[in-house]
């Protein structure tokens, strides 16, 4: 009996460790993206390459079912691919190009607030006291970051533009999470993610009609830093982490596991300091703490 209890505790501990590893990897992705952009790829090229890699890998888990059950669901899949894919990652990648990844990582933490606000506006959910207070605290934190954040970007205007693009990405992801709710009750996670990868890639293609692909394809074989970072973004951060996150969420519960998301920007700060040499100002640090407190408080029931 004792051995059974011990084994159970060890398994739970393993699930939590997996969650920490996944969040740490996600915290590194902004740095990986910046490295690839510095290697010569445009932000939209980084996104499309990452999503194609992830989509092809996702076929190994979800390949039997091709279409949704009806046209309405398929159109919702398109919207999810647009909001959670191209409209989320491409502005985020442009934000990484011109701004500070530390600022951006904490701004991205506010996506649950946007989801709740959209739910209030469109699904008639009630505004709770904790949500209102938490949102105000997080809003003050965002203001600290945007108007008093890291001054080491090339110019202040670039940093502010990067933060604004990060807010746009966050709002899109919040809307994506809301649209995903009814779909997740009807379809498996692997199928939904594969469809998002597909429609995210598809909805980014008009950008390449306006500005054709420029990164030389042969550089994928010769520029190893770009190649390895893209493989990391596509296979590890997207494909592997999705599977691992879904696994531990099922085992431990969505509410408990979701709290580990707050570690992601902290990991970004550490990794960006090591590989990019970015440092945080006092104002940005205060804003980051306020965002974490605000989002955590807003999620309290």
Automatic annotation (TrEMBL):
Record-linked SUPFAM superfamilies: Multidrug resistance efflux transporter EmrE (SSF103481)
Stored Gene3D superfamilies: 1.10.3730.20
Stored InterPro entries: AA-Vitamin_Transporters, EamA_dom, EmrE-like
Membrane-related topology note: Multi-pass membrane protein
Domain of life: Bacteria
Keyword Transmembrane attributed: yes
Keyword vocabulary terms for this entry: Cell membrane, Membrane, Transmembrane, Transmembrane helix
Pfam families, per database record: EamA
Localization per record: Cell membrane
Presence of keyword Ion transport: no
Main location (coarse class): membrane
GO cellular component, one term: plasma membrane
Occurrences of domain EamA (ranges): 15-146, 161-298
Residue ranges crossing the lipid bilayer per the database entry: 12-31, 46-63, 75-91, 103-123, 130-148, 160-184, 196-215, 227-248, 260-276, 282-299
Protein's recorded name: DMT family transporter
């Amino acid at each position: 009996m004792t051995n059974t209890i011990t084994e159970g505790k060890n398994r739970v501990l393993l699930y939590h460790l997996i969650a920490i590893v996944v969040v740490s990897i996600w915290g590194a992705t902004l740095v990986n993206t910046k490295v690839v952009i510095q290697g010569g790829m445009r932000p939209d090229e980084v996104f499309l390459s990452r999503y194609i890699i992830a989509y092809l890998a996702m076929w190994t888990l979800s390949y039997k079912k091709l279409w949704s059950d009806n046209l309405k669901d398929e159109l919702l899949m398109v919207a999810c691919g647009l909001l959670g894919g191209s409209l989320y990652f491409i502005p985020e990648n442009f934000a990484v190009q011109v701004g500070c990844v530390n600022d951006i990582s904490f701004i991205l933490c506010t996506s649950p607030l946007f989801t709740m606000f959209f739910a209030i506006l469109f699904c008639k959910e009630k505004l709770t006291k904790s949500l209102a207070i938490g949102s105000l605290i997080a809003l003050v934190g965002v203001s600290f970051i945007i108007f008093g954040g890291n001054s080491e970007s090339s110019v202040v205007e670039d940093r502010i533009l990067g933060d604004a693009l990060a807010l746009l990405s966050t709002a899109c992801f919040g809307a994506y999470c809301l649209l995903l709710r009814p779909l997740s009750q009807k379809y498996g996670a692997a199928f939904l993610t594969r469809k998002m990868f597909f429609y995210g890639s598809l909805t980014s293609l008009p950008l390449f009609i306006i500005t054709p692909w420029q990164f030389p394809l042969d550089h994928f074989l010769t520029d190893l830093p770009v190649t390895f970072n893209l493989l990391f973004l596509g296979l590890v951060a997207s494909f592997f982490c999705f599977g691992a996150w879904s696994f531990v969420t099922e085992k431990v519960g969505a509410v408990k596991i979701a709290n580990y998301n707050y570690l992601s920007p902290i990991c970004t700060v550490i990794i960006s300091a090591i590989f990019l040499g970015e440092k945080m100002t006092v104002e940005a640090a205060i804003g980051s703490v306020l965002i974490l407190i605000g989002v955590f408080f807003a999620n309290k029931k």
